[in-house]
Amino acid sequence: MLTEANRPMHAGEILEHLAARGFAVPGQDPVAALNTRLWKRSGPGGPLRRLGDAVYDRADGPGSAPSFGLPDLR
């Protein structure tokens, strides 16, 4: 989704796109649950980078150095 959007996205917006594709995130607060999962993937060497409160982009997105060997996050 981040590749298709070609821009950073908020966890709530990512959740909307996931739901439209038939995916569900369990829990009382699905946005918070997804945000936690995204945050864990945004550490050093991860495929994502955290830009702000629940806002993520690909680690190799615009403005960053290329990261080779990362999975396609579409």
Map the helices and strands:
Elements: H1 2-5, E1 9-10, H2 11-20, H3 30-40, E2 48-52, E3 55-58
Antiparallel strand pairs: 1-3, 2-3
Tell me, rounded to a whole number, the average pLDDT. Answer: 86
Low-pLDDT runs of 5+ residues are 65-74
Structural class: alpha+beta
What strand order characterises the main sheet? 1-3-2
| Total number of domains | 1
Strand content: 5-15%
Helix content: 25-40%
Number of strands: 3
Keywords: Transcription
InterPro entries: Asxl_HARE-HTH
Region (Disordered): 41-74
Biased composition (Basic and acidic residues): 50-60
Descriptive notes:
Residues 41-74 are annotated as: Disordered. Keywords: Transcription. Residues 1-61 form the HTH HARE-type domain. InterPro entries: Asxl_HARE-HTH. Residues 50-60 have a biased composition (Basic and acidic residues). The protein is an alpha+beta fold and 74 residues long. The chain has one domain. The chain has helices at residues 2-5, 11-20, 30-40; strands spanning 9-10, 48-52, 55-58. The chain has a three-stranded antiparallel sheet. A hairpin with a 2-residue loop joins strand 2 and strand 3. The longest helix has 11 residues, at 30-40. The protein is globular, with a radius of gyration of 12 Å. The N and C termini lie close together (5 Å). 18% of the residues are buried. The model is unreliable at 65-74 (pLDDT under 50).
